[in-house]
Each structure stands twice: as structure tokens, then as C-alpha cells.
Amino acid sequence: MYVKPKKHLGQHFLTDLSVAKRIADSLRADRCSTVLEVGCGTGVLTKFLLERTDITLYGAEVDPESVAYLHEHYPQFAPRLIEGDFLRMDLAQRFPDGVNVIGNFPYNISSQIFFKILEYRDRVPEAVGMVQREVAVRIAEKPGTKDYGILSVFLQAFYDIEYLFTVGEGVFNPPPKVKSAVIRLTRNGVERLGCDEVLFARVVKAVFNQRRKTIRNSLRAAFGDLGGDEHAFFPLRPEVLNVAQFVELTDWVAGRLPRNNRT
Fold first, then answer.
1. Which pTM does this prediction carry?
2. Residue 23 to residues 18, 19, 102, 105, 213: CA-CA distances in angstroms?
3. Which of 10, 27, 54, 74 allows an S-S link to 106, with CB 3.0 to 4.6 Å?
4. 85 is in an annotated binding site
5. Which CATH code is given to the segment(s) 197-261?
6. Among candidates 51, 67, 14, 52, which has minimal Cα distance to 182?
């Protein structure tokens, strides 16, 4: 049975077994033995994950053709293969004791997958994903660089990020037009940010959506004139602030914003 990669699903099937094994081995699974592979495709990564005796593997696959292929080639995996959209899953209900996430993530929804992981951060202790290299760089980048942005701040607030290795275009069918990379997210010790987290998200988005402006001008555009004294962050641009400084900035905004305008 042949599974044709589908452009609308962002499918680029990994064909290099050595890369697949390296990805599978990158998952430590030392805090949780339950693992969910997102986008199993034709099972190239699945094969090596099933060989691991320290984990229990589940799969999420939205493509019926890929599901049929996996049932045929990995019958022992079929009872734990979920046919459906990972982005619509209630991970708390399906995996009440927690779950690690791994996969060759479809490029067209990779950022949404990471936001999903972030939503269930208290139940996802670790994630390993192969994505477009530019997305991996953006997630792992530190403050002070042009690639540091919204996704960097949100994920680094709750996860330690490691850029593991780069993957060339030639190991996929069809080959993508860009390089890929594998990153690992490990849940850090931060349970809560210590500020209004809804407002934190608004502040981060507001300043990065106009990242060429100073923080003062971006905040004014998003929230109006907040008044108050000059803040040390005002003349700066958002890419220089780390997570702790964004928390501080959020507290400053919260102190000047009417409570009914914080959501």
C-alpha cells in the first residue's frame, strides 16, 4: 500500500531511518512513560518508538490513508492509534496522568501544535518535534536577536528549549524547500508566572506585533495612554526583554489598566 503525501495536510514523509532513530532516541521520557506521536504518517518514526521498552506509545493521525497503512504494517499499534486531529484533542481527558509529545510535525500547523502543548503544559513534561528550521530557531532563540519573538517568550516561560540538530531537505518525500530541525522542550519548574497571564499574553503580542516600534509606542497603540512614570523598558524594543522582564512589564501595565480591560 502506498500513501501519497498530501499537500493540504503539510505532509513531508521522513525517509531516512537514521534520522528517525535519532529523533526517537532524543525523547528522554524520564518523567512520564506515556508518549503520543503526532502525525505518524507511514510509521518511519513509529517503528523506532515501538522498539523502546521504556515507553507506551500512542499515535494521533488525521489522514485516513495513513491510518490504514499503519493498521496494515503495525497491527500491534492499531489499538493505540487515534484517528483524529491532535489540535482538537482534550489531552487532560485522554491522558490524565500526563503524556510526552513527539513527531515530525506538519509544517503548516507546527506553531499551533506548540501552542496546544503550552495549553496543556501541566500534563506535557516533554516534547520532541521536527519542524521547519526557522520555527525551531525562533522557539529556541534567546533575547536580543531578530528571531526571538512571541513563540519564544510563551514557550520559554514554561519550558527549557534545546535545539538538537538540523535536518537537510533530501531526507523527505516530497523534499521541502527549507531545512528542518529537531528541538526538545522540557517542562521547567515554573507553575505560574506571578502576573496576570491573560494580560501577559496581550502585552507580549502587542509589542511583538509592532516589533519595530519602541515598547512605549506599542503599548500606547494597544492599550492607550497608561500615564505613569517613564519605565526603563519604554525606549527599548521587545526582542531584548526576557520572560522575567515581560512579567515585570505586565505588572506595570496591570497597575495602570482598568480591571475590565485586561482580557
1. 0.94
2. 9, 6, 9, 12, 39
3. 10
4. yes
5. 1.10.8
6. 14
60, 36 Cβ separation under 8 angstroms: yes
CATH 3.40.50.150 in the chain is located at 7-187
Strand runs (DSSP E) across the chain, as ranges? 13-14, 34-38, 56-61, 81-83, 100-104, 126-132, 159-167, 172-173, 180-187
Whole-number pLDDT of residue 43: 96
Whether 39 has a binding-site annotation, put simply, is yes
Residue 104 annotated as part of some ligand binding site: yes
Between the CA atoms of 26, 31, 32 and 38, what dihedral angle is there, to the nearest 10 degrees? -40
Is the CB of residue 140 less than 8 Å from the CB of residue 33?
no
231 marked ligand binding residue = no
CATH level 3 topology of 7-187: Rossmann fold (3.40.50)
10 labelled ligand-binding: no
